[in-house]
Design a protein that fits this description.
Elements lengths: L13 H5 L10 H7 L5 H11 L2 H13 L6 H13 L3 H10 L7 H13 L3 H13 L6 H10 L6 H14 L6 H15 L2 H10 L5 H13 L3 H13 L6 H14 L2 H14 L5 H13 L3 H10 L5 H13 L3 H11 L8 H12 L5 H12 L6 H13 L3 H10 L5 H13 L3 H13 L6 H14 L2 H15 L5 H13 L3 H9 L7 H14 L2 H14 L4 H13 L3 H13 L8 E6 L2 E6 L8 H17 L15 H8 L3 H12 L6 E5 L5 H14 L3 E4 L4 E5 L2 E2 L6
Parallel strand pairs: 3-4
Antiparallel strand pairs: 1-2, 1-3, 4-5, 5-6
Helix pairs in contact: 3-4, 3-5, 5-6, 5-7, 6-7, 7-8, 7-9, 8-9, 9-10, 9-11, 10-11, 11-12, 11-13, 13-14, 13-15, 14-15, 15-16, 15-17, 16-17, 17-18, 17-19, 18-19, 19-20, 19-21, 20-21, 21-22, 21-23, 23-24, 23-25, 24-25, 25-26, 25-27, 26-27, 27-28, 27-29, 28-29, 29-30, 29-31, 30-31, 31-32, ...
Length: 717
Amino acid sequence: MLSLSLCLPSSVTVTSAIHGSSDAKDLNFESVARSLSARTPHKLLKACIRSGNLELGKLLHQKLTESGLDLDSLLLNSLISLYSKCGEWENALSIFRNMGSNKRDLVSWSAIISCFANNSMESRALVTFLRMLQHGIYPNEYCFTASIRACSNAEYLPIGRVIFGFVLKTGYFDSHVCVGCALIDMLIKGGADIESARMVFEKMQDKNVVTWNLMITRFAQLGLLGDAVDLFCRMLVSGYTPDSFTLTSLLSSCAEMELLSPGKQLHSWVIRSGLGSDVCVGCSLVDMYAKCGSVENCRKMFNRMPRHNVMSWTALISGYVQGRQEEEAIKLFCNMLPGHVAPNCYTFSSVIKACANLPNFGFGKQLHGQTIKLGLASINCVGNSLINMYARCGNKEAALEVFNDMGDRNVITWTSVISGFAKHGFATKALELFYEMLEIGVKPNDVTYIAVLSACSHVGLIDEAWKHFNSMHYNHGVVPRMEHYACMVDLLGRSGFLLEAIDFINSMPFDADALVWRTFLGSCRVHRNTKLGEHAAKMILEREPRDPATYILLSNLYASEGRWDDVAAIRKSMKQKRLIKETGYSWIEVDNQVHKFHVGDTSHPQAQKIYDELDELALKIKNLGYVPNTDYVLHDVEDEQKEQYLFQHSEKIAVAFALISTLKSKPIRVFKNLRVCGDCHTAIKYISIVTGREIVVRDANRFHHIKDGKCSCNDYW
């Protein structure tokens, strides 16, 4: 046993050296030996391991080597553990290899196997484990634990099952908690073998809170909330006290599955147990209420927390964004900053999402600037939100610029930019990005394919859409769901293939929901097929009897054919059922101020100038060949009055205001909460010719980039 004692010079305490003092490098080895005889190298190395002080540990290693003394197994094993913990596996391996066979004991093998497992070198850990067995050394609980952890990756699960069988025969996990926990983790993470994991758990004699937490957490992560809650109840009955980790795991599961009722029950237990003041539990409760759509409870929980951190603020802001209360979310973000709580990438991601749904996205641009200053713009969650924000706000160029600046792009990043170009009607660019994504090996998910099919739908690429729809399951294991079928129905219907569309609906492997039928009804409205439209409306109302949009679409279909009695009957029925039609309006942002217009709006301070501009535009575009399509006037009035009504539509008013208020060099960006009217779509194309302006219109479904009389949607609007 090495008896050399070490100390630190008087100006540097042992504690400061262990915790990384800059003076540690000035360690005087000889003076250490003279001053602190009780503090052996073993103890000091253990302190370095506990604190992770690699600098001092290396210095000790250097001085011990220079001393020429014969280092014992205990000290060498401690050095292996130090380098393992600090991620320097090469140094750990070098020490292990240079140990004589007389010094390489079971602890040495355990230390190096743990080193490989801790540094994600699973194959090396398992090979070393097998070599240890070949040397006739029987593993202890630490060897088993490290080797089993190395098998948590599905790739090594078969080897893990062999080790599992070995352990099972010996009953080693019955009395060794660490082995049992490693087995449970491997079986669930590596192969979702719930029954085997449950068997190990039940056979374990010495369970502790960590064991219970592991089972509850893994069950919750698999979506088996019922089993997780049952275990939670058993844990209480068995006399174990759940900690914050137990509660956060269960609450996170409730949040992800949007299960409010069990979440509230857990909240009640939290209050009774006195864990309500725990910051982690409080944040989990705020997050649970937010994701379950209970914004009011989310705010109450936040207000009750004794102190707030970035997690609680972010959860609250996210809750308001999900609850479509974007302005309140932005206010909360602004209130957060004076409290000296620094927003993180998730906070920025949430508040940027809020900006994507607001008419004034100037604040979103400011947030983008802040993320660049803080070095957060290229982080996935922030970059993805920025792409989505710029795409939704009509600036596809900025969305692409953010995408190009991101180094690490995941499937959400690619899907966001593909979806952005799809909504803007640039199917060629969207598909080009999709093929680039496949080429670099990023696997598309179900949302990616919705974006791809939408791109095809928006411009009428029928063959291309069929190719992707028929291959998505075979090529990438994506099973078509309702939204994919709705995209195909939209494509077929808007291309005029109504009979093919309804045959497709009837051939679906599950009952079509209201979304699919509503999509088909919209196509019937475009192509004036009243018979099929009535059938679609009947299907929708069977599923959603109080859907006002269906009544409006059917009423518009009747109005386009002059069936005013039927129109009146629908309006009467809506009145009796107290169904309210959503009011249409358009808005435009000029000089960071939002201007909102309704049909026939005269409330704007510049109303007279706006209508004078509209009168001039009407004359100019008629001279170019524009003919007002009075079919889009859904009132039984004279044709002259219908034409007058057409020029009072909110999107035309917004465009006229933009023409008198913005520079000619800038694109005009108009937003509408409902679908753009067909006549307005045609008129704006003519207006783009006579004014030489690019006009971007975002309606409830997509963007229309109109320039020189042409629209990006190829009139599949």
